[in-house]
DNA sequence: TTGCTCTTGTTATCACAATCACATAGTATA
DNA sequence: TATACTATGTGATTGTGATAACAAGAGCAA
């Protein structure tokens, strides 16, 4: 039923797991594996097989009952729906310690490519980290428009975040990932998320602390 | 009703937000603010005030109707329940680019303190980053036991992660935050979580891609 | 064709989380 | 003391996600 069509709203949690499924499929493909089962994906991603099947079912019916999924065609179909086709270009603002670690990380991970980095420190401008050049802030708008980049990562101190966000939004960025812990104001059509290692560590502390003591 | 006692199970989502509430309260306290309302916390943390009240209510009744919350006593009470008392000691394995960015980050954030870092690279051992000394892996067990550390952050390449996890678990670590994207095997009483910038970026790509096209 | 095996896709259920709306209980004022 | 006012705490409701269980479909063999 409803081949190649998909539910209009896909749960956030499903979309988060799709990241791992697709990586997993690419890795199977690279190894030359042609047919896989939901259980194989599940094991490799650390989830249950029933969740894998449910998640995939939001996008359509891709498997063969009794057999499993054809790795290549499953990848093709999903790439046809989520139109990234493996290549995801992003920019980075703030080429400090954290920023350069992220550039290096992305150079090891073929999915996301940091096509340009930006920094306000003149001494850093024009340096190249792992093939990514650092530009002055004044070039954000030009490069974003030229390369049609939609996503930006921000790795600068909290105090400067909102002013940089305003520049990014004006330049046409549609999603921002911030590594600084400060609320951000953006128009409704811009997605924002936050990632912070220490918040997660504190959360783990709280969890441990509340575990035994009632 | 039930003053100073709290529900046996506090939702994960609530615990995650508590991290931000407590930071927010500390910051109000530092500014000399003595009385606040759920709305103030909500604004500063980017959530709704009804959620703040509900979250706090899992721990007890701390506010005064018609007035609000006393910042100092609310902090004291929560610190009495979540027994971290502001000081949260952790260790870090992998003092590379990412690892040193995290050490620096924690030195700017008084809550989590990285009391020791570990690296297998002999050239890095005994160096000091922002007051945190780097030790060889062989000293993990001794230092973890001596300093009674319960939480570890791992910032090394995926290939080595499981072997390091085994050492950590043996040393008595009860929660692990990994920055490498590979499933980890631990006993049931050890908490594990993952943080990854690029996964979050890919998730944002998927979200954007699925937005307009149906 | 029938029957057997296998794994998918889906349904039904349960668990968890967010949100609303307001009774409640305190303060402030006169 | 009465009255108005204010922000909390919570019960009820809605929404969202996870899980288990199984019917449905495909392949295969005789
Ligand atoms: N979320 C996390 O998990 C996490 C982890 C580590 C650090 N951090 C935070 O990320 C931020 C950066 O950390 P870091 O270790 O890379 O610091 P850093 O000082 O090494 O680098 C910051 C860089 O940002 C640049 N910069 C500052 N203001 C700028 C602006 N307005 N526009 C463009 N560039 C600007 C600086 O020139 C510098 O190169 C800090 O606020 C830190 O607390 C977050
Ligand atoms: N999750 C994220 O958001 C994120 C971001 C950036 C990088 N990363 C990942 O984190 C890892 C580290 O990144 P990096 O930029 O710091 O790399 P890096 O090479 O600069 O540092 C890695 C460090 O780990 C040490 N190390 C390696 N194996 C070890 C072992 N078995 N025991 C102890 N120490 C060991 C190395 O000596 C080195 O100092 C990489 O796998 C990278 O892909 C994750």
Textual characterization of the structure:
Two copies of one chain form a homodimer. In chain A, helix 7 links the parallel strand 7 and strand 8. In chain A, the strands form two sheets. A seven-stranded mixed sheet of chain A has the order 5-6-4-3-7-8-9, sandwiched between helices. Chain A has a two-stranded antiparallel ribbon with strand order 1-2. The radius of gyration of chain A is 20 Å and the shape is globular. Chain A is 44% helix and 16% strand. In chain A, helix 1 packs across helix 2, helix 1 runs antiparallel to helix 4 and helix 2 crosses helix 3. Chain A has 214 residues and is an alpha/beta fold. The longest helix of chain A is centred in the first third of the chain and has 20 residues. Chain A starts with 11 loop residues before the first helix and ends with a helix. The first copy, chain A, has two domains: 81 residues, Arc Repressor Mutant, subunit A (Orthogonal Bundle); 112 residues, 3-Layer(aba) Sandwich (Rossmann fold), CATH 3.40.50. Chains A and B meet through helix 1, helix 5 and helix 8 of A and helix 1, helix 5 and helix 8 of B. One nicotinamide-adenine-dinucleotide sits at the interface of chains A and B. One nicotinamide-adenine-dinucleotide (NAD) sits at the interface of chains A and B.
């Amino acid at each position: 039923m409803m081949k190649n069509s998909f539910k209009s709203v896909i749960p956030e949690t499903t979309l988060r797991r799709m990241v791992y499924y697709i990586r997993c499929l690419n890795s199977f493909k690279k190894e030359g594996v042609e047919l896989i089962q939901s259980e194989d994906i599940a094991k490799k991603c650390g989830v249950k097989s029933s969740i894998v099947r449910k998640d995939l079912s939001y996008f359509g019916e891709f498997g063969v009952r009794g057999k499993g999924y054809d790795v290549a065609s499953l990848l093709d179909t999903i790439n046809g729906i989520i139109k990234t086709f493996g290549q995801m270009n992003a920019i980075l603002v703030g080429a400090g310690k954290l920023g350069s670690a992220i550039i290096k990380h992305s150079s090891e991970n073929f999915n996301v490519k940091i096509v340009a980095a930006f920094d306000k420190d003149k001494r850093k401008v024009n340096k190249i980290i792992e093939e990514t050049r650092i530009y002055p802030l004044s070039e954000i708008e030009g490069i974003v428009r030229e390369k049609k980049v939609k996503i930006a990562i921000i790795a600068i101190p909290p105090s400067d975040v909102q002013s940089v966000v305003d520049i990014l939004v004006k330049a046409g960025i549609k999603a921002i990932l911030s590594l600084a812990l400060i609320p951000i104001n953006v128009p409704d059509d811009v997605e924002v998320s936050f990632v912070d290692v220490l918040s997660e560590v504190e959360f783990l502390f709280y969890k441990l602390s509340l575990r035994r003591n009632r």
